Amino acid sequence: MTFDPDYDSTTANPANPGDPANVAKSKRFQNAQGVEQGTCVHLGNCDIGCDVDARNTLDRNYLPWAEKHHAEVRALHLVTNIEPLDGGYKVSFDRLEHGTRVPGSHTARLVIVAAGSLGSTELLLRCRDVIGSFPAISRCLGSRWSSNGDFLTPALYPDRAVHPSFGPTITCAIDFLDGSQNGQEFWIEDGGIPNVLAAMLKQEGIGAQRGAMAQTLLMSIHHLLQGAEPAQNVMPWFAQGVDAADGQLKLAKKFPTGEWSLDLGWDIKKSKAVMDEIIRMHLRLSAATKGAPLVPVTWTLFNYLITPHPLGGCNVGTTADDGVVNHAAEVFGYRNLYVCDGSIIPEALGVNPSRTIAALAERTANIIGDEGR
């Protein structure tokens, strides 16, 4: 997130409707890669796309930096296979074009797979088990998957406005990674809720493609919500924890089509203790701040979890007997084939993982550069 040191957020509080957060207050500038961004003005839309480009996303740092060094970014390409070929690799793909798939391929001496925990694992499983292009990839492929202990407990504050739709989505954390809470390791964060409805209603041409009745209804809602924050009395308590990281990803045939799809085998038993401890802390913090916590029924009834931070599947190891890639993220048995994303992390981190993933990727890039591959 890029902040303006001179920006006074205290005068841009939603409790002060005379001077709300406003895109016009964001200052435009060019970052180190020559990409235009704006400074943060606490709009609260971090999770759905920053209106002023204050988020330091890949299209504003690593990708333009790569393009400066002659990389070519090809959007709308879906890789279908990778296979060894003449001292390198052939990468097959479908180019998505006007609703159809146009097949193509490219050869390279060195290939880096970076499709995330689910994407990279599924691609390599397809190559090994369906197509047969990588028969020697470790049998550990797909193992030790983790949800990174992610959990969300919303709490209601009927007598207190907490403004979750204002400011950065996460601003602080409480660190319990020392195991002080019954031996479980986790940390707690505050959360945010983008004001999605207000953002939609503020778009130009609100009724251009809607019927008169729908337009009238939406405009009525718009007037009711002018300057309002529908979730202002809700506090989303976030958490990440060190779970057992014992999930198993594999390919399974879908019925009745017979198509292969990624399937997750997940047993909550060994991870339940840390999740229960996280919930206990959420309940304690909600009570201490006079909130009414609402533990999701998906957990209470079914022990279902949702994670924005999947990890593992192509784990780093010392040999092919305990991992898929080595310390440099190179696939065991396949020289110059690398995996650089969260799939190589072999256990839960219990914190937001983006910087760890970036650090590992930069380390791999340095190793490749130093060895002149």
Characterise this structure.
The structure is a single chain. With about 375 residues, the chain is of the alpha+beta class. It has four domains: about 1-70, no CATH class; about 75-145 and about 310-370, 3-Layer(bba) Sandwich (FAD/NAD(P)-binding domain), CATH 3.50.50.60; about 150-195 and about 230-300, no CATH class; about 200-230, no CATH class. The protein is built from seven helices and 14 strands. It has helices at about 60-70, 115-130, 195-200, 210-225, 270-290, 295-300, 355-370, and strands at about 30, 35-40, 75-85, 90-95, 100-110, 110-115, 150-155, 175-180, 185-190, 235-240, 250-255, 260-265, 290-295, 335-340. The strands form five sheets. A five-stranded antiparallel β-sheet has the order 8-9-10-7-13, covered by helices on one side. A three-stranded antiparallel β-sheet has the order 3-4-5. A two-stranded antiparallel sheet has the order 1-2. The radius of gyration is 24 Å and the shape is globular.
Which secondary structure elements does this structure contain, and how are they paired or packed?
Layout: E1 28-30, E2 36-38, H1 62-68, E3 77-85, E4 88-97, E5 100-108, E6 111-113, H2 116-131, E7 151-156, E8 173-181, E9 184-190, H3 196-201, H4 212-225, E10 234-241, E11 248-253, E12 260-265, H5 272-288, E13 292-293, H6 297-302, E14 337-339, H7 354-371
